[in-house]
Input
Amino acid sequence: MERKLVLSFPPTLVNQPVISTLVKDFDLAFNILKAYVTPEEEGNLVLELSGEKENLDRAVNRLKKLGVKVQSLSKRVEIRRELCTDCSACVPLCPTEALEVRNHEVVFISEKCIACGACIKACPVRAIMLNV
Amino acid sequence: MKTIEEINRKIREGKAVVVTAEELVEIAASSGVKKAAARVDVVTTGTFAPMCSSGVVLNLGHTRPRIKAGGGRATLNGVPAYTGLAAADVYLGATALPDDDPRNLVSPGSFRYGGGHVIEDLVAGRDVLLEVSAYGTDCYPRTSLKTPVKLADLNEAVLFNPRNCYQNYNVAVNASKRTLYTYLGVLEPGFGNAMYCSAGQLSPLLKDPYLKTIGFGTRIFLGGGVGYVCWWGTQFNPSVARTDDGVPVAGGATLCLIGDLKQMNARYLRGASLTGYGASLIVGAGIPIPILDEETCRAAALPDSRLKAPVVDYSVDYPQMTGKVLAEVTYAELRSGSIALCGKKVRTGSLSSYRMAREIAATLKEWIAAGKFTLTEPVFSFPGADSGYTFKPLKERRTHTAGG
Output
């Protein structure tokens, strides 16, 4: 199975090969969707991990024990429906086609989202939020 | 042939047949234009999109002692208003920005708060901070003022939009190798996306292409309240190229709109932040079109598949005013989610909300069906397709300095 995760590394872990050890120990494959390290802050990594369910669970537990904040990617991007006008300015900018117009409304397919943020600056009423 | 007077009598008696432009498309497709024209009395339209040429005239009321904002400086939530009017009158435009907004200093700017947002805050009944600084006169001695105000406190608050309801509009694409930030949204390089801005088959002026029924004094839905057409809009161009149906294939006509902000609703007037471009106001407008004869019905019944928009490259052709059009596409194609351009499938997005346009057309339909809203005969019509009236670029001339 696969899981898309957002990992936030504290400054103390930024210099350690955490993911490399993880995939070896738990026989996982990984695909990095996005990575950035801010100066004197934390490292952020958006990645897809795939492997046995049991191993994935153990890997996530190991990360948490090390002090890494683990979030499910799907919860990162949120459309505030009360603000959205369903104009569709965001739709063609989504690289993974996680935004679609159905029945005149903009639909967000969270499983497809990689939290790249391309939709956010396209929204004229700032209805799309990236939760950090 | 019907007259507006006859239609109004039916509206007052609760007997008028009122349908939205989208419904008329269906009716005409199933029973033909002739039968539709005989049956339908009024067609309602709607549009909901950023319209930069919008703003409000505000009368602030006089303070004790008096202060003269005219010729001085006034801001609302930090956004400067125009003060070149009398002592207590100001005009706040949709694209105005606070002095300390960084604009595009670090590109693209986000333009989170501007005139359009102040207008939304006022309509929503929120407090807005008014600051005035003045030079002081014998009759207006006070030189500074700082107070929260809200819409109900002001004497007049009049939405006055010199250009709304563009008849048709460009579809923007980007042929260059870098991302562009435009008033039609973010444009990805290499024809990465195509952005349009029209409600198509619901859009007011696409449904009365020669403005046969719309003119000075036409009563309309504006911002959730009742407004009026009070002139033709700026950049009005009836001399534009048209399809066989008579519908412009580019900009075309525009309208100048006016209405009392106090009876409007923040659902239909929204501040907009166009990344890398500026602040604006999203305006909801709807115009009723009386079905006087088969001809008005035929035009009002045109579906998205017969309404075309020009595709323009915003990396070169738009900014340099070359006039080049890459292709023409229909609103049916645009609304399908992608268009074919230069052998490539290009995904589409709209700045205009079709869902809100439908809501506005449906609301106006309800008002008319309930007998609350009657139609108006234009006081006069606007320049027509054969008038020679056109939209010209600015001609720059050499300056003449004294003694030079």
Q: What stands out?
A: The interface with chain B takes residues 85-93, 100-101, 104-105, 118, 121-122, 124-126 of chain A (CB under 8 Å). The longest strand of chain A covers residues 29-37.
